[in-house]
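User:
Care to share a sequence and structure tokens?

Assistant:
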Amino acid sequence: MFKSGFVNIVGNPNVGKSTLMNQLVGEKISIATFKAQTTRHRIMGIVNEPDCQIVFSDTPGVLKPNYKMQEMMLQFSESALADADILLYVTDVVEKPEKNKDFLDKVAKMTIPVLVIINKIDELGRNEPEVKKKDGEKEHKVKRVMKSPTEKLVEIVDKWHELLPNAEILPVSAKNKFGIDVLMKRVKELLPESPAYFDKDQLTDKPAKFFVSEIIREKILRYYDKEIPYSVEVVVERFKENADVIHINAVIYVERESQKGIIIGHQGQALKKVSSEARKSLEQFFGKKIFLETFVKVDKDWRNNQHELKNFGYDPE
């Protein structure tokens, strides 16, 4: 009896979906940083075992779109509801369960198995801050009644039982790998009987160029502040692989001339740092020497340009 199925991961931004995906697949497939909205595409990671094939999908965080790129990102997330055999709805111990209730209502109507993954449970043990209150003209500190991590978790689980009564709830810490084995075991139990969808040696549905772009974008997310990383798109224009070396030319697109200057930095130092860090990660990813050249170009307001977005791969079709 062979099992195979699509296990799609959805949830709000910054709850740890990409970290969870990488732990489940056992490889770094998705960008995982401390910043929200790092995942822009739907990315598959394939786990092949003798008796099953699990096709995990990481998706962008669910949000109210402010521009066309975010509209298309939301379509990636919603498409994951349509073709899932098992849905992993990821939340954490701090976000409000009612956030993005429209999307949650769609999850509640699903007839397939839904697992609510409460991530970051390692943060439940942190001390709660003192609350400052004013009594007339005097300000004094009031300590909150401390609850144990178990009590906090029980409250969170009860709330999710109310919102999604048909879902199973599993607490995990993706960062610390706590609960991942239990989750994986449950996923295998719920998989439908089916032949494999992909070749047994295939790890993902994305080409090598995609991961080059993502690794460079990850470094930009780490080394630049505020809006800059969210205004950037990376396109690989040349990827030539030989036996021992890969030659890569990549273009970093920004929306404004001022952003181009920030990306490049004084005497090109900022761009050199990003390129150097990206090259190191690419060599680790591909297991080969990398020659990487990066260029910066302006593509005005590309995030709201339907044609450009499709060229950059933001097309759920």
